[in-house]
Amino acid sequence: MEFSLFLQNMVNGFSLGSMYALIAIGYTMVYGVLRLINFAHGDIMMVGAYVCFFGMVSLNLPFIAAVVFAVTICAALGIITDTIAYKPLRKAPRISLLITAIGISFFLENLFNVIFGSEAKAFVIPQYLQKVLTFGDITLAMSAVFVPIITLILLAITLFILYRTKYGMAIRALAFDIHTVNLMGIDANLIIAIVFALGSMLAAIGGVFWSLNYPSIEPMMGVLIGLKAFAAAVLGGIGSVGGAVLGGFIIGFTEVVVVSLSPEFSGFKDAFAFIFLILILIFKPTGILGYDFEKSRF
Amino acid sequence: MKKITTLALSLAAISSFGFAKEITIAAVMPVTGAVAAYGQTAYEGVTLANKMRPTLKNGDTIKVVLLDTRGEKVETSNATTRAISQNKAVGIIGELITANTMQVMAIADKNKIPVIAPAATSDKLLDNVKFGSRVCFMDSFQGKAAAEFAAKDLGYKTAVIVVDQAQVYSLGLAKTFEAEFTKNGGKVLTKLRISSGDKDFKAIVSQIKSQNPDFVYVPTYHPEAALLARQAKQINLNKPMLGSDGVANPTFIELGGDSVDGFIFSDSFDASNPPTELSKKFLDEYEKDKGTRDIAGFTALGADAYFVMVEAMDKCADPGDSVCVNDQIHQTKEFSGVSGVISIDSKGNAIRSVVMKEIVGGKPTFKANVNP
Fold first, then answer.
1. Do B34 and A264 touch (CB under 8 A)?
2. What is the pLDDT of residues A228-266, one digit of tens each?
């Protein structure tokens, strides 16, 4: 492989991985506090992409305003799903929560199918993000530069919230022991709502970024992406935010590397990503940065 | 007693002459789902053809019922079963995708219901069925036409093929293309595989760029082809791309935007030069209906599937006699349809021409005609 191709692939993998990372954070945080794998998370990402599209096309909002609109709607949607679907089941067995999450996922997919139709739609990309940058032999779209940078900033903000603020401390405490936290006078439901809002906001941004890179949106787009982001969260160690980001990058790079090393197998890149996940889990069942969850915290 | 017999006889006479029956043809098509664009455009053709010719020669009216397959295999077999058992369809037009059409034909064959596929191009489609036929060309011919066009008319020497490994259609086309292109002195540098539903082709296009071929052959359906073209432009890969009739619909151009300008593809019909009398009439009707003369290839093929079936029914004493109708379909000779002149052989395969088109300024424009 030539060096320029190698560099180009690194850039591609970085940009793909950062999008998985954004979505994986939502999985890992919700799992951390509720021990729930929120299968509706991938669909919230889809909602984010559609709301942003709707804002730009039907409400004529500028791109940034449409993103803010999408983020707000998704944060609200995250809180609403928690309130109506998960909150009544706080004391129920975990499996009921999981099934509810799958139900919410189907509901969102079909709702958007009815509203927008199942045909893929072309996402509108603002002119300034369509520019192509050239560095020697490497070329990349403006969005491919912009996406990882924003992701890293968002990641830093998330970590700051988790480790340097009062609410972050409450979230970590909740992950550690939900019952004791209640006894300490912390409103666990409020903290859980914050976690859902935060995760859904990141998912919405992930959805918008995804649509900037691959401008075709359809109601089922969240399924496979959500599954891979979930795999990323597990790979990195579910419950760990840093792990989710690391896992996202690993999955992104694996996909790109498979295609460039063995083009004949390029159609199986999804399979390779999951094989890699299995391999890691065989040797480290809690994921790379994970720890035994029953005994620990963030 | 005599009176009663006369009454009974006259009643029987009235019922056989006076009351024309209603014959049902089912359109089993994906009008929602990922490939809804195919079903919608084809169904447009079927309904317009039905409007132009709503009755058979013997006075029976033809009713078209639509059953949605959502482009999924399970839904397809449900829809087919429903068409046969509930709607009592005597003929089926559909599906659009090869894999699903095979499903329709397998079920219809057991019930001896003739099926005409408007757009399923796989060579193997009719291998195991007696009651199937099609009005479109076969992959071996489409792939061959594209390979010859690339090698002879465009003078290209090297190609990279991007094949969708989840689609029989794509695999079949890639195979015949490779064989023909090599035969014509070309060289296939590498074959890259993708799967339907993939969105990220950045690694694929980077790989193509490093191979530096004369052009890229992309025999996939439109959602993948459009994104591939977009991501190619993003990394300044300005190689010509050649596709198949999987991209012959307006959604492809909508998804691809500017990036698909210059994309060349094979199609079955070109609205700018109607090949037959029937196409001219059809274009006029379409314009009256929709106010445009831009007709997608699948619309013309949907109409042709309908016309061929009605033509065959007219030749049978009883249009509900499925064995006779199927035989007549298989004996279609030089039928001047909407999309061109179609002959159908005893196996059900159509012999017809291919049109090469190029997208210029967001519009498919005629490039060449390739005859069998």
1. no
2. 999 999 999 888 888 998 999 999 998 888 887 777 777
Chain A contact set for B197 (CB, 8 A)? 224
pLDDT at res. A3: 79
Give Cα separations from B352 to A70, A294, B31, B136, B349 (angstroms): 50, 68, 27, 7, 10
Q: How far apart are the first and last CA of chain B?
A: 66
- A7-19 pLDDT, tens digit per residue, is 888 888 888 899 9
pLDDT in tens, A76-127: 999 999 999 999 998 888 889 999 999 999 999 999 988 988 888 899 888 8
CB contact under 8 A, A113 and B202: no
Contact B193 A5 (CB under 8 A): no
- pLDDT tens readout for residues B304-325: 999 999 999 999 988 889 899 9
Q: In angstroms, what separates the C-alpha of A121 from chain B's closest C-alpha?
A: 7
Q: Do A139 and B235 touch (CB under 8 A)?
A: yes
**Distance from A280 to chain B by nearest Cα, in Å?**
24
The mean pLDDT of A42-71, rounded to a whole number, is 95
pLDDT digits 0-9 by tens, B322-355 = 899 999 999 999 999 999 899 999 999 999 988 9
Residue B284: helix, strand or coil by DSSP? helix
Could you count the other beta carbons within 10 Å of the beta carbon of residue B190? 16
Write out chain A in H/E/C secondary structure.
Answer: CCHHHHHHHHHHHHHHHHHHHHHHHHHHHHHHHHCCCCCCHHHHHHHHHHHHHHHHHCCCCCHHHHHHHHHHHHHHHHHHHHHHHHHHHCCCCHHHHHHHHHHHHHHHHHHHHHHHCCCCEECCCCHHHHCEEEECCEEEEHHHHHHHHHHHHHHHHHHHHHHHCHHHHHHHHHHHCHHHHHHCCCCHHHHHHHHHHHHHHHHHHHHHHHHHHCCEECCCHHHHHHHHHHHHHHHHCCCCHHHHHHHHHHHHHHHHHHHHHCHHHHHHHHHHHHHHHHHHHHHCCCCCCCCCHHHCCC
Query: How much is the ipTM here?
Result: 0.81
- For A263, the closest of B32, B207, B257 (CB atoms) is B207
Give yes or no for a contact between B298 and B45, defined as CB atoms under 8 angstroms apart: yes
| Bridge partners (DSSP) listed for residue A131 | none
Interchain contact A265–B (C-beta under 8 A): yes
Residue from the list A117, A120, A260 with its beta carbon closest to the beta carbon of B203: A260
- pLDDT digits over B233-256, tens only? 888 888 999 999 889 888 899 999
How confident is the prediction for chain A on average, in pLDDT?
88
With residue B158 as reference, give the H or E element that holds it.
strand B158-164
Cβ pair B200:A2 closer than 8 A: no
Residues of A in contact with B199 (CB under 8 A): 210, 214, 216, 221
